[in-house]
Amino acid sequence: MLLVRAPPSPPPLSAATFATNLDGALRLRGLSSSRAAVAASAAAAKWAASSRGGQKLKQVASVANPLVKHCVKLRLSAAYRRSCRRLLLVGLAPILEMCRFELDAIDCLLLLDGLEVPEELREFTGDVVYVSAAVMKKVSGMQSVDSTEAIAVMQMPKHFRDIGSEEDGDDLHGLFNRPKRILVLDGIQDPGNLGTLIRSACAFRWDGVFLLPACCDPFNEKALRAARGASLQLPIVSGNWHDLHALMTKYGMKMMAGHPEGNSKASKGIQSLSKELADSLLNEPLCLVLGSEGNGLSAESLQACELVNIPMEGTFESLNVSVAGGIFLFMLQPKHQISSITSIS
Description:
five-stranded mixed sheet; 13 strands; alpha/beta; 2 domains; elongated; Alpha/beta knot; 39% helix; eight-stranded parallel sheet; CATH 3.30.1330.30
């Protein structure tokens, strides 16, 4: 472990204070809160980059510090996360998992006073901020600091698109390259389920995830923890049915949706998932739609998709959506992934 102790006092001007002051100035000039947040965040990052040569050490003890307020807003507000293009990652284990893919995406690392910078982060050159237990509890939202010894402020992945937003517009250019498999989530509100599904899609080499309205934010703390780094590797798009239909038409993709056989909402026939069905789809681009456990598929999904269920015996009609999704994602995974599994066996 590389031992790094906090300095006795903070520097006269921190990146967070600089960003807060600039944000206020921008608002006085009439910019929207969204644009002000983006401009302030970018300016703070530029300031920090120009002032550090290696890790820049700071110390924050007060919960009223602007950096603390910024981090709390990142944890609580999806709109603020998207306007700043930043996210908050709580806990050392998730941070180390993310660092395998995007070490440069970390803007700032918050460590509990008295702890060392882990060896795995020895190449990190950003700001290291030592904080009190009170600050760590405030930022993490936890009552104890036992499992929250570190928090990271990270840049949102470049391959995330919020279609129609002020920041992203309608541009999907360069996000997908002839996709063969896209997972579509229809109203998945549980962050643990959503994160697990993103992780499974990444594990089975699907090309991306499309989030329809009413889905929870994929950069919610619990969703990030469940995804185990997959959110930084897989293209994720947030849009509506019109956007999905345009994507489907552009790439000539077939639409299928997982649906329990005993569900009364279906007015059409339901196929059973099988190896024969999966084999028949190997060369066909496919969108797989999964609905929420509570409400199931939306009316739009039921109308637009061919329905398929997982055959089961016993008294249960359905599975948890993340469990069912894992089965669908494995069975319907892309042809090159199937080929590699066959060659290994």
